[in-house]
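On clarity, I found the account of how folds are encoded harder to follow than it need be. For illustration, here is how one protein appears when written out as sequence plus structure tokens.
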Amino acid sequence: MTMKAKNHRNIPIFIPHLGCPNACVFCNQRSISGKQSFCREGVEREIKETLRTIPKDYSVEIAYFGGSFTGIDRELMIYLLDVAKSFTEHHDPMLARVEGIRMSTRPDYINEEIMDILARYPIKTVELGLQSMDDEVLSASNRGHNALDAEKACRLIKERGYGLVGQMMIGLPGSCADSEIRTAQKICDMGADAARIYPTVTFYDTELACMAERGEYEMLSNEEAIMRAKEVLKVFRIRGVECIRIGLCASDNLGDASLVKGGANHPALGELVMGELYFDDMCELVEAQMPHKVTKDKILNFCVPQGELSKAIGQRGKNKSRLEEKYKPMIVKIKEANVPNLVLEMTER
């Protein structure tokens, strides 16, 4: 689920596994991105074609995702940056809507030299694949860097004035709910402007799949992922850090049983997480207005912001049913309204 401003669009250019000599236990970038190869000559054409499909009033960023962008061959990295920069300076108004560049990379591929190169380009945001801030989890995942490397990288990015997005994972080897909450807190402490939450999907042809086969790793279920991601999301919400995605981007490959062994791979995972969060919030509002748990013949009227109704009601009306069961004989009504946040009004039946 993406939670991003409606008038903004990224043009994602996926660079599968280029520049990354490391072999994280969970990583099969070609399966994740759906890209088996990369053609540098096709990047400019892909950007132009995508731009023509984006409404004129949208702001646009070119986003280099899928690999470790600042670790790829230096000449290729500069070529791709030059291509993106050319659109920000383009004479054609349709193409000149590109406002900047964002990229995803690893903490250990951020240093002063890289920052000096990036300073020549209209970089807006750097997304860091932090995954965890627990050294034991990073080691068990064969991540190739430690938490201190992540802290240094975040500091460099913020010192240069770039937006920082912290990407973290749920359900890595050796991880638990508490360590994931601590990772979220640390991402906030390091000045992240936004975050992404990726529950672990176990792909075939990865060490993680072998670990699962040997009984050394228990794959994350959708139910576990939903509850653990919900607690992480609470941390980001309390700290004012926007979560711009929960779960991997949808692709045909994610639904391909020959590629995905298991793990949290529900197509509406983000929506389900938000539904659980709404349920907790609605219960808290009821309890606040009924401190002594005195159930009366009332109607619980919940109002949610525009566009949030399906999340609040829950999949197949799950939240409404649970609330009515928990607070019977009360009746629950949930509707959209012109409100910034969830609101509850109790009325007589």
About this structure: The mean pLDDT is 89. The chain is about 35% helix and 20% strand.
